[in-house]
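Quick note —
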Amino acid sequence: MAFTATLTTEAGTATIKLSGELDALTAPQLLDKLDEAAAAAARTLILQAEELTYIASAGLRVLVFTRQKLGEDASIVITGAVDTVARTIRMAGLDRSIEMTVA
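Predicted structure written out below.
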């Protein structure tokens, strides 16, 4: 399945809907959307992951970079992550700095 990342912004909140497989080839697409969200001065970032089927280490690196770029006072939330994606995020320890709700 092809990866897509669709960004919408409203009143300090950026929402990115993710679908497909987030790996080394597709991580730059997400990074571009996250840069757009940061440029829009988003203080809350919601990553809708209901349709994200896989996340590789390159995707995890993008999440780490996002936390660093937005800062600790920004809120990052991953919603609807399927079990395999949520487990990968937890194993990397990112659930300590990123709020996550699972499907």
